[in-house]
Amino acid sequence: MSLPFDKVFDARGMNCPMPLVNARKEIGKLQSGQVLKVLATDRGSVGDFQGWAKVAKNVELVGQETETEGGTSIYVHYVKRTA
Amino acid sequence: MTRPTTEIAWTAGELLNQLRRRQKLFVLDVRNRDEFEKFPLEGPGVSAINFPYFEMLESGGKDDMVDSIVACAQQDLANKLPRDLPVLAVCAKGGTSEFVMQGLQRLGYDAGNLQGGMNAWGNYYESQAILDTHELSIFQISRPARGCLSYMVVSDGNAIVIDPLRQLHAYLDMARARGCSISMIIDTHSHADHISGGLALAAATGASYHLHPYDAIHPMDLLPATFPYEPIRDGQVLRAGKHELRAVHIPGHTLGLVALILDDQYLFTGDSIFIRSIARPDLGGKSEAWAPLHTRSLRKLLEMPEQTTVLPGHFSTLEEADTGGNFQATLCDLKRQNESLLVLQRESDDGFVRYLLDSLPKFIPEYAEIKRVNTGLLSPAEDDAATLELGKNVCGLAQAQAAVHGESR
């Protein structure tokens, strides 16, 4: 499964809180309606993106999935800027 | 107003020392709510609040993490964070809380960071000597965040490990330090709250692995263990160097629970009698059938000599430790102080069974899964194993747990 997106932010190898802190900055650069695909190796990012999307303004978490790449789990988050 | 601050990094070991001294400590936990609720940092002097870091980020509204924390702390936390106590920032792995500590220090708080976060605290092991002579030594090896206790009995260059926990380094390091070899491993029962290190330690050392056969069957799935083991039987005597370890079958918490008595003096009770509580009889899903067995087994233990030293499988709060930091008590003291044992001594069997059934804590679904792991029916990856075991054990009865929660708030 893969969802449509406009830009990719690669946060693989980053530790908490950097995937979220940096993805948040990247979303600020998007236009309303665009989707950022975030790749992370930090397992904690799954719950953190869910929690963050609930409190952040103008942001919607449209999907999450886990891919496996050479034995490593990649946590993928699709975040849409809504306004 | 702003005092010069130094970076204060608390290791898990330093945290334990502070908690033992009942040091007053304020915890700002920035994990998400689920994690905080499942596994809060608890201790006699601890008060904690949860403010997830992503909410701090949004509330502070800055691009920079530390700037956001400063803004959020001024806006949302000014009335909550104490100025006269150390504030320990806590997250899952210790990275995010480092930023939180920096933000709080900028505002003049006496802030520290728990290094390695709750992962490090949850996986921290501590070893203490219960007895240490050149003839015989008993070490209590604990995982303080989870309230799990295991033991190593050393005599004549040989070590027996009782109820080893999942990470093996504590036992291997201890054996190396004492120049002894681990020759025998005993699980007093099939654990529900944590993954046993028994089989892995047996594989790593070549030691024999012992378990009562009734606990080599998953009580709900009714499926047999997938690994070989040496069956323990009631009354069996196992040699510990020059000393004797006698098994007593005490079904109740599990059907195959055994207590072990060393030299008629030290009683490893597994999950039966704890210092302030007793074990619950419902983790096999058959509380009404098992509660009467549990009652009879507990009575059998109370008949042992008054000066027997009880060495339990769990504790609920660090306050249960004696002044030396060990979790031990004489049977005589427990008969007078342990609330459930007081009930047992004054009630009939039927009355005590009713008491047990009225005191059951909430059933924890993960516990059936952990028993599958301990029966060899499942082999989770490290991350999943850690998630399964998250949080403090709930192997004791409800009243004891409630009392603990009441005290720590």
What is the oligomeric state here? heterodimer
* Overall average pLDDT of chain B: 93
Task: Please report the number of helical segments of chain A.
Answer: 2
Indicate the proportion of strand residues of chain A.
35-45%
| Range of helix content of chain B | 25-40%
Give the overall form of chain A.
Answer: globular
Q: What is the residue-averaged pLDDT of chain A?
A: 94
Can you characterise this structure?
Chain A has 83 residues and is an alpha+beta fold. Chain A has two helices and four strands. In chain A, 35% of the residues are buried. Chain B is α/β, with parallel strands linked by helices and 409 residues long. Chain B folds into two domains: 9-120, Oxidized Rhodanese, domain 1 (3-Layer(aba) Sandwich), CATH 3.40.250.10; 125-404, Metallo-beta-lactamase, Chain A. In chain B, helix 4 (65-76) packs across helix 5 and helix 10 packs across helix 11. The interface between A and B is medium-sized, with 18 and 19 residues.
Summarize the structure.
By secondary structure, chain A is of the alpha+beta class. Chain A has helices at 18-28, 45-55, and strands at residues 7-11, 35-40, 59-69, 72-81.
Secondary structure blueprint with pairings:
The complex is a heterodimer of chains A (83) and B (409).
Chain A (H helix, E strand, L loop, with lengths): L6 E5 L6 H11 L6 E6 L4 H11 L3 E11 L2 E10 L2
Parallel strand pairs in A: 1-2
Antiparallel strand pairs in A: 2-4, 3-4
Chain B lengths: L8 E2 L1 H9 L4 E5 L3 H6 L7 E5 L2 H8 L4 H12 L10 E4 L5 H11 L4 E4 L2 H6 L3 E7 L4 E7 L4 E8 L2 E5 L6 H10 L2 E6 L11 H8 L2 E4 L18 E2 L5 E4 L2 E7 L8 E5 L3 E5 L16 H16 L6 E4 L16 E2 H7 L1 H8 L2 H10 L6 H10 L7 H7 L9 H11 L1
Parallel strand pairs in B: 1-5, 2-3, 2-4, 4-5, 9-10, 10-11, 11-12, 16-17
Antiparallel strand pairs in B: 6-7, 7-8, 8-9, 13-14, 14-15, 15-16, 17-18
Salient structural properties:
heterodimer, A: 83 residues, alpha+beta, Translation Initiation Factor IF3, 39% strand, B: 409 residues, alpha/beta, Oxidized Rhodanese, domain 1, Metallo-beta-lactamase, Chain A, 2 domains, seven-stranded mixed β-sheet, 18 strands, disordered N terminus
